[in-house]
Amino acid sequence: MRAVFGNSVPPLTDEQLEAQVTARMERQRLLHERPNVPFSFIVEEHVFRRMLGGKEVMRGLLEHVLELSALRNVTLQLVPLDAEFHACLDGCIQLLETEERRRLAYSEGQQNGRFIADLKEVSLLYQRYDTLRSQALTPKDSRDLLERLRGAL
User: Fold this and answer.
1) FRET partner for 11 with CA separation of 20 to 30 A, picked from 42, 102, 145, 148?
2) Residue 133, pLDDT above cutoff 90
3) Strand stretches in the chain, DSSP E
4) CA 143 to CA 141: how far, in whole Å?
5) Are the CB atoms for 126 and 103 separated by under 8 Å?
6) Among 16-25, 68-77, 130-139, the least confident range
7) How far is CA 133 from CA 56, 75, 109, 138, in A?
8) β-strand 93-97 against 103-108: which pairing, if any?
């Protein structure tokens, strides 16, 4: 995270950088604090092939992701580099469901994010995510790939 935020344009102050890292770490605690809540992530393989921060940083990232993806409430799938296309090329989305079973979404861009509550739009994003899940590697194959990438460093 420090490598990502350390390369922000315009540059962040040390305090801003630490605030961003702290916020990300706080969000990750949810994975441990809510073991009965399923968390599902689909990430493009190239994220783990980019040597952002160098080999040691990437090795640490891979180990961290492998540790988190071993949790029973976490599912991680990778979209392989050789995929010609996938259902979410328009950008990142986060899908949410409340305790009352209301479905919501969040879409993020370069300088902005958008909370989505419109039922038709949310439904479309869930359909795209379902399609993306079928286009990605299985969770086991995704972990195997991450372990191979870690071993190659």
Assistant:
1) 42
2) yes
3) 39-44, 74-79, 93-97, 103-108, 113-116
4) 5
5) yes
6) 16-25
7) 30, 11, 21, 8
8) antiparallel
The backbone torsions φ and ψ at residue 56, rounded to the nearest 5 degrees and listed phi first, read -65, -40
Q: If we measure between CA atoms, which residue out of 106, 48, 37, 52 comes closest to residue 78?
A: 48
| Per-residue pLDDT tens over the stretch 13-31 | 999 999 988 998 898 999 9
Residue with tokens 């809540």: 37
Residue whose entry in the numeric block shows the structure tokens 């190659």: 152
Instruction: Tell me phi and psi for residue 38, to 5 degrees.
Output: -75, 135
**What distance in Å separates the CA atoms of residue 93 and residue 1, rounded to the nearest whole number?**
19
- What's the pLDDT band for 127 if we cut at 50, 70, 90? very high
Residue 75 and residue 41: Cα distance in Å, rounded?
6
Q: Rounded to the nearest 5°, which phi and psi values hold at 123?
A: -60, -45
3-state secondary structure at position 64: helix
How far apart CA 53 and CA 58 sit, in angstroms, is: 7
Nearest to 41 by CA among 1, 2, 92, 101: 92
- pTM here is 0.86
CA–CA distance, 129 with 70 (Å, rounded to integer): 22
- Quote the pLDDT of residue 137: 97
